[in-house]
Amino acid sequence: MTITERAEARRGSRPGTTRGFSWGFVVKLLLMAIVNAFGLTVILSAYRAESWLVLGIMVALLVAVDVVYFTKRALPLKYLAPGLAFLFVFQLFTLGYTGYVAFTNYGSGHSGSMQQAVDAAFIQDEQRVPDSPAYPLTVVERSGELGFAVVVDGEVRAGTALEPLAEVADAEVGSSGAPAEVPGWTVLERAQVLTDPALQEQVVALRVPFSEDPEDGSIRTREGSTGVLYSSSLQWDEEARTLTDTETGLVYTADDRGSFVADDGSRLATGWYVGVGFENFVRAFTDAKFAAPLLQVTLWTFAFSILTVLTSFGLGLLFALIFNDPRIRARKVLRTLFILPYAFPAFMSALLWRGMLNSEFGVVNDLFFFGADINWLGDPLLAKLAILWVNLWLSYPYWFLVCTGALQSLSGETLEAAKVDGAGPFRRFRSIILPLLLVSTAPLAIASFAFNFNNFTIIYMLTEGGPSIPGAPNGIGSTDILISAIYAISGVAGGTADYGLASALSIIVFVVIGVISAIAFRQTRKLEEIQ
Amino acid sequence: MSSTTTTRPAANRTSARRARWWAEVGWRYPVAVVIIAFAVFPLLYVLSAALNPRGSLAGSSALFSTFSMDNFAALGGTAYWTWFGNTLLIGGISAVGAVLMGACGAYAFSRFRFRGRRFGLTSLLIIQMFPQTIAFVAVFLMLLAIGEVVPELGINSKLALICVYLGGALGANTFLMYGFFNSVPIEIDESAKIDGATHAQIFWRLIMPLVTPVLAVVALLAFISSFGDFILARLVLTSEENWTLAVGMYQWVSNQLTSRWGLFAAGTVIAAIPVLALFLGLQRYIVGGLTSGSVKG
């Protein structure tokens, strides 16, 4: 650094005196303006959507970020804040939320609050009101969303499936009596509605709430020119928490399991979620439907991760021993070729092997088993072997690299001394190389075990957990590991959802990982590094 | 013994030497050929399938029997390039974000002494053991809730997926970078400080250029992990035009495995080449990162 540069840098310590500093300050102000604008937008829309949790978290985050960046103190936090914000919201919060959901019956039929369940009940029960007036109606559209514009008591109101009808100022009613021009909306010609079958279907299925109150019912149409009022015969008594069907006289009472149940045992399809204590955990262990398949899945999860680590470690070590010899030529080229499977994207490898192991057309049967029809992925035992094989192919290069590195860092003197003492190659390996190698690779083996314990990709891409275990729920299969079984049970990919049970199982996986990590913790010296 | 060897004819001696060479070194070459066949066969097979104009799994077993670019051309008629773009976008932004957050975090932990520093490091070490993928149900439910407030951050938003990936960034990368930052001598900071540099100037102008290798590794690892992620991407991105390659190509293979094989193979070849090149190019650094336990295994 020259003297002038130094002088410049020193001046930089006073705000606003050099270009370097003021630029940074401008960038900071700009970024903070964007962050604050974003935060305020979220807060406002959370207020409008009455989503108090989102609002609370956003206010806390925004205040924290502003305090951190606009005070002179808290220097380390200036660097940590962005990462911490994401960590809190998208990792810590989700971990905590998993813990919460595990103690509820959140899932299909129990997916919202009681108020949402009541609203849903009204909608499901809606029927055409027998003496409803016919409202002149026009199909309208706004930003891709279909809606209705109707004439009610001489004024034009418009709305969509999500937005209840609201008055539109300056709308014009055409000669047919239906709205002809609706400001803010695109009017769809009646001919267009009649000639486009797909559009027609959408129009017939559309229900536009009459008002904010679901008890007022909704407007629907059969032909696209007149709207009829549909409403529910249910009556909601918030005090008594009962829904009364005024037609049949049945009274549905809210029970403590999150459902509306009538005296004759019938229940409404939509419920809400409630806390159920340890029930999900108990169900995982004792419910005959789940317990047996889940036990099988758990055993296979352990077998899969242990065997994968053992086989790939063994093969990688063997290759490392063979090729860690300075007399071999072109070792770099060989090494690059050896690790190709590791560099290849894992999900693509698994999908590729899925095709290669296809029983009918797969190249493995065609080339190596003389065209036999071996059902590699359809037989419970063969599918397990196939998964282990593919995972061996995927992960031996990792251990080859690790072991090569570890072998090269072994002290040559110790080995020389053993040689002089007359130890043969096998003895040297067993008594010196292997113990020293294990010291440095054991933490990695544990990490690899934990990784494979949750190796969703390979299982799902190769077999999707199949072939399914006869009688097991949600199509749990004999190659499912815990995380893929959780995926099947959770129903996020379709089918009946049981978020509660899925989260409870996730908690169990957390516990297993926690124990493994505790062991790994004692192995690694990372904790000492901290001090 | 040496006297007997010297009396033997020279030809005999060379053959003895050759036998010894075979016993000690030579046998390793045939073994290497076997290993390479094991490692490379699937990759050659997918290349051959990509060049096979029949485009189906049936009949793809005769390796390199035909040569045509039909499959690659046919990718244009699918959503492949959209998915490719999505993958690059999501992976690229998450990689940049992960590097910035990780570097800032590592800088703070490495250069400042503050209350809660040890607690922070230990917590990060514990948190990073619990990957987000196990909590996918909660991620899904949370994004549903956020989506009601801010649709741009809800289900079916690429931005939401990036945010989810960035949630794991601090935990996953800080440690790898922390070690590297510590290896940069603190005297550099101190002399700059005496010269009047601010902490931000030290970070951006001095430290960051010195730690470029670890930045590259973390970027690559973050990119590869988002590239290969299926479970979260599948959960968050629901409409086809938002899918990443992992979600889209899985759909191809799971629905019509045998008929779309050619497309899958061509798509795999295109997508894998840049990843392979990056990985092999940065091999030296990654091997160093391996031993810190931060790479898939």
TrEMBL record, chain A:
Compartments it resides in: Cell membrane
GO BP of this protein: maltodextrin transmembrane transport
Membrane topology summary: Multi-pass membrane protein
Annotated GO CC locations: maltose transport complex
Gene3D superfamilies: MalF N-terminal region-like, MetI-like
Ranges that cross the membrane: 21-46, 52-71, 83-103, 299-321, 333-353, 386-410, 431-451, 499-521
Domain ABC transmembrane type-1 residue range list: 298-520
Molecular functions per Gene Ontology: ABC-type maltose transporter activity
PROSITE patterns attached to this UniProt entry: ABC_TM1
Record key words, sorted: Cell membrane, Membrane, Sugar transport, Transmembrane, Transmembrane helix, Transport
InterPro entries in the cross-refs: MalF_N, MetI-like, MetI-like_sf, TM_PBP2_N
PANTHER family: MALTOSE/MALTODEXTRIN TRANSPORT SYSTEM PERMEASE PROTEIN MALF (PTHR47314), MALTOSE_MALTODEXTRIN TRANSPORT SYSTEM PERMEASE PROTEIN MALF (PTHR47314:SF1)
Family, as annotated: Belongs to the binding-protein-dependent transport system permease family. MalFG subfamily.
Function: Part of the ABC transporter complex MalEFGK involved in maltose/maltodextrin import. Probably responsible for the translocation of the substrate across the membrane.
Name the record gives this protein: Maltose/maltodextrin transport system permease protein
Lineage, opening ranks: Bacteria, Bacillati, Actinomycetota, Actinomycetes, Micrococcales
TrEMBL record, chain B:
Keyword tags: Cell membrane, Membrane, Sugar transport, Transmembrane, Transmembrane helix, Transport
Cellular component terms per the entry's GO annotation: plasma membrane
Predominant localisation class: membrane
An annotated GO BP: maltodextrin transmembrane transport
Transmembrane residue ranges: 29-51, 89-109, 121-147, 159-181, 202-224, 261-282
CDD domains cross-referenced by the UniProt entry: TM_PBP2
Bilayer topology: Multi-pass membrane protein
Similarity comment text for this entry: Belongs to the binding-protein-dependent transport system permease family. MalFG subfamily.
Protein name: Sugar ABC transporter permease
Organism: Arenivirga flava
